[in-house]
Amino acid sequence: MTVGRRRWSPWALAMAGILVVAAAVVATSPSAQAVTIDPTAWYQIVSRHSGKALAIGQASTADGAGLVQLTLGTGTNQQFQFVSSGGGFYRLRARHSGKVLDVYNFSTANGANVVQWPDLNGTNQQFSAVDTNSGYFKLINRNSGKALDVWELSTADNARISQYTDNGGTNQQWRLTVVGSATPTVSQPPTATTRPPTTSPPGCPTRTPPPSYPNPGAVSGSTGAHDPTVVKTPAGSYLVAVTGNNLPLRTSANRTSWSNAGVVWPGGASWTSPYTGGSASLWAPDLSFRNGQYWLYYAASTFGSQRSAIFLATSPTGASGTWTHRGLVIESSTAVNYNAIDPNLVVDQQGGAWLVFGSFWTGIKMIRLDPATGLRSTSDTTVRAVAQRTTAGGAVEAPNIYFHCGFYYLFVSFDLCCRGAQSTYRIMVGRSTSVTGPYVDRNGTAMTAGGGTQILAAHDAIIGPGHQAVIPDNGSDVLFYHYYTSSGASFLGINPLGWDSAGWPFVS
């Protein structure tokens, strides 16, 4: 007996294998034509297996409401319009909500939930309709290549609809019934209401990017750095914190000449020991100045471990030894699917406070903070996904969100750090009109589906630039990061950040 969602006899398994192969031939051969779709019609989509129709559960209009099957009725939550995305793919728009079917979080897994979501024209929202030569058709998701499927062969009302490997089952076959007509929907990607505009708003200065990546600007003094974060003080000087024993600090009066300024915790940080194995090394600090105080988020972990934690400290001056431990913000372990390192505080345009963080596992996450305490909100405990890679071992980390001219820009580092001259870090970016996303790159690919537009990578003698932070300074924007040299040492990199005519950043 096999262990899984369906139980088959050996004979049935053999036949299923034949069917899968046959289905694959049908799906890829020229004879497998897409069913004829009328983009002006509203359809009920009826399961061959159960005779029931696709529906949004409980007629919900909420983002993330699940797709189920229901006995045929007249509810508009059972009615869908096929909106062309081009190339034989369609978004399926629910009549009652105006939202489209979406394989949640760009999953490629069998059994992944199918929900409704605002129309972003993502590949996880696009389906091809492929004939089965039996009067029925399959709906194949563009992102995963898997078929829309009545889970566990159920015939019950409210049984959930998932995606599953195309196996030719009748629970993956559908027919259409016209129930009304609609004004034709323009088969273009969504406009500014659901996707960021393609140009900068009026009044935002733009420049032409240089033909190649520039080298870091000139700096001197104490410039050894890893995972730098920076804040400009009320007096006009600069304070930098970096990864290292008890969190080293650097200061500069002019952003060029840098001096050691001690460490955040001269007496150590005993509360971090359960996560560091007793090591004094603390990681990836994030500095800001709010409400007359310096705020510092930082991580405690060991290399490659998911046993990690993010803490908060505050100081009236930012100087060594003046910091107060404010508490644990969030921790991670094998009980969750994320890693609680690389924090970055984000204050949105409405004054809401958020923490974005993450490394490998399922990528970059975001939680709401209590703006008064800086600790995790107790009323909104949702862990939101904002970026993920399903390739390169999931190598995405070091998030930093920066608001510019109507957009929130999510900067991340792809690939590998901490390997000296073998490091492969590179800086990527996406943007959104909402702090919680969805973030998309220049090509419209969601960052939760591996998207990201590269703005800086290895060049000349500069190796593995990454773990970036962006600040406004004297009417311009400035990028801080670390990079390696051939010796394997890491140094502070600083460059101006420019914006092109489409509102995308570049390093200058």
Keyphrases for this structure?
Tachylectin-2, Chain A; 2 domains; five-stranded mixed β-sheet; five-stranded antiparallel β-sheet; 34 strands; 5% helix; 40% strand
Notes on the structure:
This protein has 508 residues and is mainly β. It has two domains: 10-23 and 34-181, Trefoil (Trefoil (Acidic Fibroblast Growth Factor, subunit A)); 220-507, Tachylectin-2, Chain A, CATH 2.115.10. The chain contains two helices and 34 strands. The strands form eleven sheets. A five-stranded mixed β-sheet has the order 13-18-17-15-14, with no helix packed on it. A five-stranded antiparallel β-sheet has the order 16-19-20-21-22. Strands 23-24-25-26 form a four-stranded antiparallel β-sheet, with no helix packed on it. The chain is elongated. It starts with 9 loop residues before the first helix and ends with a strand.
User: Helix- and strand-based class?
Assistant: mainly beta
Number of strands: 34
Number of helices, counting only DSSP H or I runs of 4 residues or more: 2
Q: Describe the strand arrangement of the main beta sheet, using strand numbers.
A: 13-18-17-15-14
Question: In this structure, how is the largest beta sheet organized?
Answer: 5 strands, mixed
Could you tell me the strand content as a percent range?
Answer: 35-45%
Give the termini separation.
Answer: 62 Å
How large, in whole angstroms, is the Cα Rg?
Answer: 26 Å
Report the helical percentage.
under 10%
CATH homologous superfamily descriptor of the largest domain: Glycosyl hydrolase domain, family 43
Shape: elongated
* CATH class descriptor name of the largest domain: Mainly Beta
Looking at the overall shape, the CATH architecture of the largest domain is 5 Propeller
